[in-house]
Amino acid sequence: MIHFMGTPKIETQRLILRQLVFKDTQKIFDNWLSDERVSDNRVSPAHKKVSETEERLERIIAEYESKEHCYWGIELKADGELIGEIDLYDFERTTDNCEVSYSIGYKWWNQGYGSEELKAVVDFGFHYMNIHKISAAHNTDNPASGRIMVKAGMVQEGIVRHMIRNAKNQYKDCAIYGILQEDYIRFNDTAKIQVIET
Ligand SMILES: CC(C)(COP(=O)(O)OP(=O)(O)OC[C@H]1O[C@@H](n2cnc3c(N)ncnc32)[C@H](O)[C@@H]1OP(=O)(O)O)[C@@H](O)C(=O)NCCC(=O)NCCS
Predict the structure, then answer these.
(1) Whole-angstrom Cα distance, residue 169 to residue 139?
(2) Which fold has domain 10-193?
(3) Per-domain residue ranges of the chain
(4) Which of 12, 88, 109 to mutate to test the pocket of ligand 1 (most atoms within 8 A of CB)?
(5) pLDDT single digits (tens) 29-53
(6) Which of 17, 57, 132, 192 has the fewest CB atoms within 10 Å, i.e. the most exposed one?
(7) Residue 41 burial by Cβ neighbours in a 10 Å radius (0-12, 13-18, 19+)
């Protein structure tokens, strides 16, 4: 059974994963949600107005009431900048499986932060939440996302043609990845992350 802990603060070498708060709105808008270079690789379109980000954030923050809501903002330890987000979602009762999704602001791409956040959440999901399997999918024209999945230990299980249609009305083929708790624990028998608050 999944052991839900909400969205505790998690510390990695260079990052703090923490709950989002209302005063993050402008940073979220500026750093990734208004940027098509980020949104083109996701399903939802880039935000044109800060009010769209406000509405989205209101929903995310309201859901922190639930222990089953796992949605982190990614903050750099070095300067406190909010650079992205990551969440675990679609918890499936019959299997104890779930999905993971993430974004990093363009300015911070290719500096290892995406790999670091995903590894942390995979570690948390298996060692602390007892999730059975974590899955994700990326557009095949977004290989950087596949690369961080591999670096987090995920394995490609296939490609689904025209799995999504994005905001620009383009169909995208998606590569599906997954990692099993039993495989992860075999090579990582103790947790690597530090959970600061529960
Ligand atoms: C996917 C994403 C989170 C990666 O974040 P990041 O901080 O740049 O990731 P990292 O720096 O840890 O790693 C990126 C890896 O991709 C590789 N990479 C980058 N561009 C690449 C390309 N065009 N082809 C192949 N590999 C590429 C980098 O070399 C790096 O691998 P390496 O460490 O082995 O050198 C970020 O690009 C992003 O937010 N993209 C937009 C949103 C998105 O795609 N979300 C996921 C939807 S499935």
Answers:
(1) 14
(2) Aminopeptidase (3.40.630)
(3) 10-193
(4) 109
(5) 999 999 999 999 998 999 999 999 9
(6) 192
(7) middle
